[in-house]
Prior knowledge:
By secondary structure, the chain is α/β, with parallel strands linked by helices. The protein folds into three domains: about 5-45 and about 70-220, 3-Layer(aba) Sandwich (Phosphoenolpyruvate Carboxykinase, domain 1); about 225-295 and about 380-580, Phosphoenolpyruvate Carboxykinase, domain 3, CATH 3.90.228.20; about 295-370, Phosphoenolpyruvate Carboxykinase, domain 2. Helices cover about 30% and strands about 20% of the residues. Helix 2 packs antiparallel against helix 5 and helix 11 (about 410-420) packs antiparallel against helix 12. It is globular and about 65 Å long. The N and C termini lie far apart (about 70 Å). The chain binds oxalic acid and manganese (II) ion. Manganese (II) ion binds near residues 227 and 249.
Amino acid sequence: MTTTNAALKQWVDEVAQLTQPDKIHWCTGSDAENSALISQMLVTGDLIKLNEKTHPNCYLHRSNPTDVARVEHLTFICTENKEDAGPNNNWMNPAEANAKIDALFAGAMKGRTLYVIPYCMGPINSPFARCGVEITDSPYVVINMRIMSNMGEAALKRIERDGVFVKGLHSTGDLDPNKRFIMHFPDQLTIKSIGSGYGGNALLGKKCHALRIASYQARSEGWLAEHMLIMGIQNPAGVTRYIAAAFPSACGKTNLAMLIPPETIPGWKIWTVGDDICWLNVGKDGQLRAINPEAGYFGVAPGTNLKTNPNAFKTIQHDTIFTNVAVTADNQPWWEGLKEGTPVIDWRGNPYDPKNGPAAHPNSRFTVTAKQNPCYSPHAEDADGVPISAILFGGRRRELAPLVYEARDWAHGVLIGAGMASETTAAATGAVGVVRRDSMAMKPFCGYNFGDYWKHWLSFADLSNKLPKIYHVNWFRQDKDNNFMWPGFGDNLRVLSWIFDRCEGAVGAQETPIGNLPYAKDINTAGLDIQPDTLKELLSINQDAWRTEAQQIGAYLDEFGSRTPAQLKEQLQDVQKRLG
Ligand code: OXD
Ligand code: MN
């Protein structure tokens, strides 16, 4: 197979010249191709077959133990002007970056096959979808990209029709962390990644394309590429409203997107549109419309069980690729949080010994098609996307942030998103549990200066008068004894239903200096074991602590110097005035 797109053909030739593969394979995305790759990986040991009876068509991949998460310190945005990348990114001059990484790519595919993966992020017939081509020497990447995107012939046809595509070059190299780089050249619509086989660094359609490159592209084209789940909430009257919600990595986006309402609140139903990435465009009707650019889930396994996320649990019982989980004596996948089974082999492939840490890596993952999700929205692949009624921002904050509060208007909501903070997780290498500012949960993913990004967000007020309401939520408040104050998981519906009712104009709220909070009486606590005092505390603010927070947000906004929009600073001053 080859292509009628001359630029693509030439790029593949150039890469082959540089990387010196033994073979070139153009991926069609067919079942036969997938089966052949799996057979080959079973022989090389890249995949291990799991118990066919309990987990039909499931496989385990063990990555190199030094290559288990995203590497933010090795991820670069390479623009001519350093200011355009901003203090939120690592920057390298494009000429220097290309020289450095091309030297590592030279001969990197000797003895390997070069796979050409045409893919489309988003429904293949959607005007909001965008295409790319990933070149890789990893068959693991090929089989994962087949699940995570619309990969193969149809995507190639669209590329040949549109003429535009994002170029992503990837090689696992020799997996030496000292020779690992994830580089983005947004004005060239190009990504180069070497030295890692981990999802976020290697499945280039996901974070690299659908967030870093897409956010840059979206800015010039007037849309938004966001680190958000998308879900439909259907009320007992049968009305469905859609929300998009930004939380940092490993803060429960997949769980929220697949939520099962508590039995004590009958009649509600949740539909998943997406669990990680959301592309937002102002539709012809003036509403903000969302598509999920991904076709599958690359979810965190630990903690997933029948109680926390029954839909995800059911989704991953067959046709799933597991990465870095443990296995039981009868070869079933196992991770911390599973009630059944006993791990005997840990994620590294060694006999399990609790002295060596958890059996499954805390960032171990499952890759599975979205179509297997029992609550997959019938509108998830609508070409025009779904209309968004509310946007949620949230993080892990053991203190300070109330359960939920509502922005006064769009610009105030942008300030809430810009100022949000969360405790770090195992999804990236580095310390876990440290509070850091993570604007719109995009700190690791925004392909340009946050100052310009906030300005772009603010500009939507000029594009539409039907913008969604904006909220901040926090499921992670803890009391003095470190107990979680809110049950979370399915009970989060109690917050979502309040938001739904606010969107309908059906319920009031108390105005506070930071935004509108629910009255305790309006949170449905039927069947919930929560003390009135706890709920009261979750729904109130500590003005002193918020004065300090507002000051810290101010210092953070100042880090972006003249790029910080004046309107955002005014919004903060208004909050400070209200706080007194
Ligand atoms: C992810 C992440 O894999 O955010 O989704 O790290
Ligand atoms: Mn993510």
